[in-house]
C-alpha cells in the first residue's frame, strides 16, 4: 500500500524527481544523490516507488525524447499478449511506461491508468508487483535502441543492490543492539565469542556487498551507464549482495532468537525486503553465471578483469 502522505511530502521536496533535469521539472540531482536516498529509505524500512518513478521511468522518458509526465509513474517490461508481469507499484500508478523488446530496436509505450487493467500482486516484502494488461492502445510511443534497454536493466539491477545494502546495514545495526541489550547467563550476549564471530561475519559480508554496490554506482556514473565493464561490475555487486543478504538474514534472526521470528518484530522490515530485492531484475544464480562467463572469457587476462588494471 502506497503511503500517499509521505509520497506527497517527498514530491513537494523534489525528491521523487531527484535526477530528472530541472528543464523537465525535476531537481537535477545525480545518480549518487538518488542512490543515497534509496539506501537511506531502505535503512528506515520505507517502501516507496522512488527508483521506479525517477531512475527508471523518468530516465526512460527523457532518453527516448518523450515528454515528462505528471503523477506517479512506474516502468515494466512488456511480454506476450500485451501483458507485463511483476510491474512494481502499477496498482498505485497514474501511468506506466512499458518496454517492448524484439528485433533490432525496442519500443517504449506510455499508458494512463484508464488504458490498462491491473491484477494485483506483491513480492515477498508485500510491495506491489502487479500484472498489467493493456486495454487501449497508447498514443505516446517511441522507438529506442536495444542499448537503452540494456541500460535500463543495469539501472534496475543496481537499484535493488543499493536498496538491499541499505536494509542489510539496518539489520546489522538492529542485531548489534539486540545482542548488546540481551542478557543471558548473567552476561550480555555480545560478550560471548560465538555471538561476536557470527555478527562479525555478517557485518563483513554486508560491508563487502555495499563496497561492490557503490563501486558499480561509481562506474555507472563515470561512464553514463555505457562502460564496457559495467555489466561485470553490476553482476559483481548483485552477486555480493545476494550472498551477503542470505548471511545477514540468517545471522540476524539467529541472534535475535525467538522474538525475531514474530511477525510483529521490526526486524522483518529489513530482512524480508533483502530476500525479495536480491531476486528482482535478475537472480543471484544469473549474476553468478554472468561473472563465471566473464572470467572464463578473460582467460589469462582475468587479473586485469578483476583489478581493472
Automatic annotation (TrEMBL):
<dbReference type="GO" id="GO:0050660">
    <property type="term" value="F:flavin adenine dinucleotide binding"/>
</dbReference>
<comment type="similarity">
    <text>Belongs to the acyl-CoA dehydrogenase family.</text>
</comment>
<feature type="domain" description="Acyl-CoA dehydrogenase/oxidase N-terminal">
    <location>
        <begin position="3"/>
        <end position="64"/>
    </location>
</feature>
<dbReference type="Pfam" id="PF02771">
    <property type="entry name" value="Acyl-CoA_dh_N"/>
</dbReference>
<dbReference type="InterPro" id="IPR013786">
    <property type="entry name" value="AcylCoA_DH/ox_N"/>
</dbReference>
<feature type="domain" description="Acyl-CoA dehydrogenase/oxidase C-terminal">
    <location>
        <begin position="158"/>
        <end position="272"/>
    </location>
</feature>
<protein>
    <submittedName>
        <fullName>Uncharacterized protein</fullName>
    </submittedName>
</protein>
<dbReference type="InterPro" id="IPR036250">
    <property type="entry name" value="AcylCo_DH-like_C"/>
</dbReference>
<dbReference type="GO" id="GO:0003995">
    <property type="term" value="F:acyl-CoA dehydrogenase activity"/>
</dbReference>
<dbReference type="Pfam" id="PF00441">
    <property type="entry name" value="Acyl-CoA_dh_1"/>
</dbReference>
<keyword id="KW-0285">Flavoprotein</keyword>
<dbReference type="InterPro" id="IPR037069">
    <property type="entry name" value="AcylCoA_DH/ox_N_sf"/>
</dbReference>
<dbReference type="InterPro" id="IPR009075">
    <property type="entry name" value="AcylCo_DH/oxidase_C"/>
</dbReference>
<dbReference type="InterPro" id="IPR009100">
    <property type="entry name" value="AcylCoA_DH/oxidase_NM_dom_sf"/>
</dbReference>
<keyword id="KW-0274">FAD</keyword>
<keyword id="KW-0560">Oxidoreductase</keyword>
Amino acid at each position: 500500500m502506497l503511503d500517499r502522505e509521505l509520497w506527497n511530502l517527498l514530491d513537494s521536496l523534489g525528491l521523487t524527481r531527484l535526477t530528472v533535469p530541472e528543464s523537465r521539472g525535476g531537481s537535477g540531482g545525480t545518480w549518487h544523490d538518488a542512490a543515497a536516498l534509496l539506501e537511506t529509505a531502505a535503512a528506515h524500512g520505507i517502501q516507496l516507488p522512488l527508483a521506479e518513478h525517477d531512475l527508471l521511468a523518468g530516465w526512460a522518458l527523457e532518453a527516448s525524447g518523450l515528454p515528462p509526465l505528471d503523477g506517479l509513474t512506474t516502468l515494466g517490461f512488456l511480454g506476450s499478449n500485451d501483458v507485463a508481469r511483476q510491474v512494481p507499484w502499477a496498482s498505485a500508478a497514474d501511468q506506466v511506461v512499458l518496454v517492448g523488446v524484439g528485433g533490432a530496436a525496442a519500443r517504449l509505450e506510455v499508458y494512463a491508468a484508464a488504458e490498462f487493467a491491473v491484477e494485483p500482486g506483491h513480492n515477498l516484502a508485500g510491495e506491489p508487483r502487479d500484472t498489467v494488461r493493456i486495454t487501449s492502445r497508447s498514443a505516446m510511443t517511441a522507438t529506442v535502441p536495444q542499448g537503452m534497454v540494456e541500460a535500463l536493466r543495469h539501472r534496475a539491477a543496481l537499484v535493488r543492490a543499493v536498496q538491499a545494502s541499505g536494509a542489510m546495514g539496518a539489520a546489522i545495526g538492529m542485531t548489534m543492539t539486540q545482542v548488546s541489550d540481551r542478557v543471558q547467563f548473567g552476561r550480555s550476549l555480545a560478550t560471548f565469542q560465538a555471538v561476536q564471530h557470527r555478527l562479525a561475519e555478517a557485518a563483513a559480508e554486508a560491508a563487502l556487498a555495499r563496497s561492490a554496490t557503490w563501486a558499480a554506482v561509481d562506474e555507472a556514473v563515470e561512464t553514463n551507464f555505457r562502460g564496457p565493464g559495467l555489466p561485470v561490475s553490476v553482476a559483481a555487486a548483485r552477486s555480493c549482495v545476494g550472498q551477503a543478504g542470505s548471511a545477514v538474514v540468517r545471522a540476524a534472526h539467529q541472534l535475535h532468537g525467538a522474538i525475531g521470528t514474530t511477525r510483529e518484530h521490526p526486524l522483518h522490515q529489513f530482512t524480508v525486503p533483502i530476500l525479495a530485492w536480491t531476486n528482482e531484475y535478475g537472480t543471484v544464480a544469473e549474476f553468478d553465471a554472468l561473472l563465471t562467463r566473464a572470467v572464463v572469457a578473460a582467460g589469462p587476462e582475468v587479473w586485469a578483469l578483476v583489478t581493472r588494471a
